[in-house]
Amino acid sequence: MQGSMDPVELEILWTRVTAMVDEAATALVRTAFSSIIRDANDYACALFDADYNLFAQSTFGGPGFIGSLPVTMRKMGEAYPPQALNPGDVLITNDPWICTGHLNDIAIVTPILHRSRVVAYAACCAHQADIGGRIAVAETREVFEEGLFIPILKLMERGEPNATAFQFIRANVRVPDYVVGDLRAQVAANDVMRRRLLDLMREHGMADIQALSRSILDRTEAAVRASIRRFREGTHRGEVSIDTFDDQPITIATAVTLKDGEVHVDYTGSTPQIAKGVNVCLNYTASYTTFAVKCAVSPLLPNNEGVLRAIKVSAPEGSILNARFPAAVNARGAVGQFLPEIIFGTLASLMPQRVMAGSGGAPVWAQRYSGRARNGRRFMLTCVARGGFGARPTSDGVSTLAFPSNTNAAPVEVIEGDAPIVFEKKELRRDSAGPGKYRGGFGQHVVIRVRDDALPDGGHLTASAKGGRFHYSVPGVLGGHGAPKGAIIANGERFEVSGRQVILGPGSRMELLLPGGGGYGDPLERDLDLVRDDLRSGLVSPEQALSAYGVVTDASGVHIDVAATERTRAQRKAAQTPSAANPA
Amino acid sequence: MWENGAEQRQAMTSFGGLYRLGCDIGGTFTDFYLVNTATGEVAVEKCLTTPDDPSRAVLEGVQRFMRRIPGLMAQTRCVLHATTLVINALIERKGARTGLITTRGFRDVLEIGREMRYDLYDIFIEFPPPLVPRHLRCEVEERTYQDGSIALALDATDLARAAEQLRRHEIESIGVCFLHSYANPQNERKAKALLRDLAPGIPVSISSEVLPEVGEYERTTTTVANAYVQPLTTRYTSHLSAGLRQLGFERQLLMMLSSGGMTSVETAAEFPLRIVESGPAAGALAAAYIARAAGYAEHVLAFDMGGTTAKGCVIRDGNIDKAASFEAARVHRFKKGSGIPLRIPVIDIMEIGAGGGSIACVDELGLIRVGPRSAGAEPGPACYARGGREPTVSDADLVLGYLDADHFLGGEMRLDLDAAQAAIDSAIARALSLSTAAAAWGIHEIVTENMAAAIRIHMAEKGADPSRFTMVAFGGAGPVHAYALACRLGIRRILIPSSAGIASAFGLLVSPVAFDLVKTRRVGLSDLDPAAIEALFIDMENEAKRFAERADPAGEISCSRSLDLCYCGQGYTVNVPLPAAEPRPDKARIRALFEHAYETLYGRVYADMAVELINLRLVAHSPAPAVALRKLESGRPASAAMKGRRAAYSGRSNGFVDHGVYDRIRLQAGAALAGPAIIEEREATTIVDCGGHVLVDEHGTLVIEPREA
Predict the structure, then answer these.
(1) Which residues of A touch B107 (CB under 8 A)?
(2) B122 contacts in chain A (CB < 8 Å)
(3) pLDDT in tens, A136-171
(4) Is B159 in the same domain as B46?
């Protein structure tokens, strides 16, 4: 079970291979043109052994690749087995059912040959700046509308670029220089891993890396299973609605089973796939599910095939979480990113110390502004903002923090240089956190105005905005309350659905009200010092302090009347029905 | 104590040259280095740091020198100082009660942050609470646009209201950060002028002076941190200056900047944040100097390993790599991203939690993990016998025979071998069924690999190939680990300076006066107006020279210019120095310089891509002081300095072998010896494995060539 390698040697080699994938990732991020790779961390670099086992993955990067990379690798291997590969070959595909569930992510795989034998594979998957098709909206009805579909093929053959493939790609995307630049960056990142792994093998006189890979996988699997075994075996079920499309609610049904040191998550009973670009391929479902389970049971372990061996994911074919080709899948995050909070909610009573409440950061809130400025230049700007992080078992959620995706905020000072818009405010939103013994992080309130003087006379710009939680609030756990809903208001009109497009003229405004995170535990148990801090900061109003926390303040609205508070809390506790009481 | 024995003490007291005195306050010790610039002779001292009032240790050390050299203060040209004062204030949150004034709608910039997690899986992730809580953050009506145009002039009534609110909360320092003030500082300057009357006696830091660089979050954290540490830095420096005056020192006290230059006390008090990394900067300067003196200046890796962290820094042709930002006071598992981002010019240091005090444990994978947790100075490693029970790197080094239990710190502190063995046995050896020695070797190997991995990545990011580099190793634990680390990195030459344990203090003596400035001017290369850029550079030159001349009124100040450039669409800029011979290159030349730098870093260029200018950078500096180190006597073979033999672990032999033990102070120039060897001095022990060769150069530096792998 413990593998064949001695622990000191293994730790040293493991540190080395982790450093390799991280070095490749750094090289990729620094040279990427796609801000989605750079600021949204939407990429992964990884190493596979000769049997296609994932043994090292870059520590940073999005959760979307966690369960999908091994599938990508195996499918590539089926198409091009070792005997079909030569030094200098590089494989490519963006098939959503093989990669990460939408066409924007392109996977690049480079075989690593040592003494004319394939000993390992370097892989890099990254979100491109553009892939053609309709721009990132959920309005698509089939994958064919969503851009260029690249089947598995050789992008490079014996070191020579496949000119035909590059021509096809260039001809199908809006920013060919950026896309080709990023493909080259991906190929270069794989080459970093290839060179470093061969250096390591030479230094340590290794003929292959199977023993190393096996040791890494076995130890990781054993640790994950041991961690899972600490919890009671059994099946936990949940069912929640997350959003509505065309007035139809999307419902996710979950059954999480712990047995024999394994976790099996099954989504039977979830809504069938729909004719909108929010369907999820099983790979992406597996990624976000594995991510959530790993966060709960083994957050500090590096990700590799050993983790995946202990966490199984299934969803019925044709459901929204296992869509069949040619379903539209472009905006699969609009559904898939809810899975972590659904898993946490399902596991909350089993492992109350390991889960958090829902986060206002899911799904991603993004707006796009495009048009032509007064000086004649075209602009196209994507602007992302995040809600609050869910409350945790021992602390409040962090305000305005990405989850489960992980994106960096571009500074307002940079954004205002990229498009003729100005921010009137970007501040924490009062009373936006879900109350609880620990409250969620706060969401934010953003107001953006189109500059009066920066568009040509009579000009306007096109804006689209997506967000979420318009219909269902961010959930709390274990007695914690949900966070107030989100809203997008453009030109004074409130959006009923996410992803709408509007025309904005000079002086018109886009207003975003992002939800905070959900609460954890009964708000009546919240420490008065913490409530006092929130009153002093002004982020919790005296009204919310009273209604949610049972805290009575004096006329100043800042000082707590402790005696009155204790009376109020006692009365409310007594009135709590058993079902509303804190089950923890 | 004197570097080279009693003879020199005699010699040094009898001349009348001018002295430079360097003093570096560290976590545990305050180190002193004195050089006579006429003869090149040096002397060192070491005092326990006095955290309640760090100047006490400084004055104590100076007095020790004074007792040895009559009339020293009158002959001392300058006292050069590096201190952990600022970083400690940030870590321990001991700064001033600070208020912040921002543009209306933006008081939460400090708390909204980058909105990104630094750890993907950890739901218990934490961020440092803002240095200014929300109720001390005030908004005022004012607005500047990205192009520098003022959309709304500062509302003075609003500012008065904000000042009144802050006054009611008894704040001691104020930061002001308005949107786009880097493009036009007018509203901020007006606020500063008005606050002089609205908040008399309260220091004000405005962001356009602290850091005129685009990016409101980092500019705010930096401005606020500057305001936060300003009162205590001002107090400290005036206190120290007064103390030195009382000792008869009338000349200049200079402070080390994080970017590796000296500055005046006045400038340090105005921009205290700039001295936050003064100690590490001094270490890098020492390494650069030592490598040059030994004739290996071209490719240098400074490696400093102390009690809690190890640092690496790349120096090429005497130029220390610099970075534009630094993260202080990390709050969660020592993770990058969990601290306060500070945008200041700083030497580009790789730092990881690996030091003598790093704690080893067995993790959930059944593997040995070393650091980043540290036993610190209290309770310290188990072998300090001060209550530490967990095994540390120093415990492993003792068990492996590298440290001598009886001669640690020159015998001032006895180490407890039994306690070290017991700690390793109970935490590691038993759990993994290893012998004590094998477990200790495992700890040593793993901490060395942790450092190697971090340095490898750091160097790769800079396009630096370790096999071409000379490592200069120092710090208390550096020389113990240098040999094994060099072998792992493929480095072929190691230099260990004399008094390697306190080399940072030496760096203070050889540092030029300098001051760095940055200014954001975001413009596409095709739209760039060279005359406008030239005008900006001239402004920056005048400003930087003013700061430099404060510290070196008589010096010949020169300026170096550089540009931060990127391909349009890429987020990472490349700093491109403008050659001194051509300070005003045209657009085509700028592009060529950028492409050359980009290719060096990333191995490719994009001929069709537009290039964008982001920042202008400028450094004003005086020539580095000429300090000619005194040469060592030569002639005696190494065997004359041998003081015995002891068994220590050899990685090459996979077991304990007999090592020759040498007294470093008795090694003369030209002495040569071969590993396995242990070379001991008071502050550091150097380990050389089987096959390694050591030559003592004319300045006493050990030049070690590891055996080819």
Answers:
(1) 427
(2) 295, 299-300
(3) 667 889 999 999 999 999 999 999 999 999 999 999
(4) no
Integer angstrom CA distances of residue B310 from A157, A376, B355: 44, 53, 6
Q: What angle do CA A338, A343, A344 make, to 5 degrees?
A: 100
A345: tokens are 């909610």
C-alpha dist (Å) from residue B537 to B149, B335, B400, B534, B563 = 21, 37, 56, 5, 11
Task: Look at residue B208 and tell me whether its pLDDT is greater than 90.
Answer: yes
Q: Is residue B100 part of a domain?
A: yes
> Smallest CA–CA separation between B427 and chain A, in Å?
15
Å between A564 CA and nearest CA of chain B: 25
The per-residue pLDDT for range B281-321, each reduced to its tens digit, is 999 999 999 999 999 999 999 999 988 889 999 999 989 99
Examine residue A86 and state whether it is found in any structural domain, yes or no. Answer: yes
Is residue A33 situated within a structural domain? yes
Locate tokens 């490693």: which residue? B381
Q: Which of B107, B122, B709 sits opposite A299 (nearest CB)?
A: B122
Select the residue of B179, B570, B709 nearest A31 (Cβ to Cβ). B570
pLDDT at B708: 62
Q: What pTM did the predictor assign?
A: 0.92
Note whether B167 and B228 are same-domain residues: yes
A178 near B CB under 8 A: yes
Partner-chain contact A413 B215, CB within 8 Å: yes
Rounded to the nearest angstrom, the gap between the alpha carbon of residue A485 and the centroid of all alpha carbons in its chain is 20
Identify whether residues B520 and B613 lie together within a single domain. yes
Instruction: Report the number of distinct structural domains present in chain B.
Output: 5
Residues A141 and A13 in one domain: yes
Per-residue pLDDT tens digits for A337-351: 999 999 999 999 999
Number of cross-chain residue pairs from A and B with Cβ atoms under 8 Å apart: 211
Distance CA B265, CA B271 (A): 10
Task: Tally Cβ neighbours within 10 Å of residue B574.
Answer: 23
Q: Which of B116, B135, B152, B572 to mutate to test the interface with A (most CBs of A within 10 A)?
A: B116
Contact A444 B134 (CB under 8 A): no
Residues A374 and A481 in one domain: yes
Min Cα distance A242 → chain B (Å) is 22
Instruction: Name every chain A residue with its beta carbon within 8 A of the beta carbon of B571.
Output: 32, 35, 38-39
- Residue in B123, B432, B454 nearest the CB of A7: B432
Enumerate the residues of chain A whose CB falls inside 8 A of the CB of residue B133: 536-537
CATH number, residue B57: 3.30.420.40
Phi, psi of A214 (to 5 degrees): -60, -40
Write the DSSP string, B427-442. Answer: IIIHHHT--HHHHHHH
A30–B contact, CB cutoff 8 A = yes
pLDDT at residue B214 tops 50: yes
Q: Which residues of chain B are within 8 Å of residue A411 when distances are taken between CB atoms?
A: 214-217
Asked if B612 and B571 count as a contact pair (C-beta separation under 8 A), the reply is no
Is the backbone peptide bond immediately before B130 cis, with ω within 30 degrees of 0? no
The minimum CA-CA distance between B76 and chain A, rounded to whole Å, is 48
| Residue A45 in domain | yes
Note whether A1 contacts B: Cβ–Cβ < 8 A: no
DSSP for residue A526: S
Do B80 and B252 touch, CB atoms closer than 8 A? no
Q: Which domain holds residue A190?
A: 7-221
Residue ending a domain, among A221, A244, A273, is A221
Cα–Cα dist A443/A483, whole Å? 9
Give CB contacts under 8 A, 24+ apart, made by A230-237. A231/A258, A231/A297, A231/A350, A231/A351, A232/A258, A232/A350, A233/A258, A233/A259, A233/A260, A234/A258, A234/A350, A236/A346, A236/A347, A236/A349, A236/A350, A237/A346
Both tokens of residue B672? 């040569």
Indicate whether A167 and A120 sit together in one domain.
yes
A366 touching chain B per CB within 8 A: no
Model pLDDT, residue B552 = 87
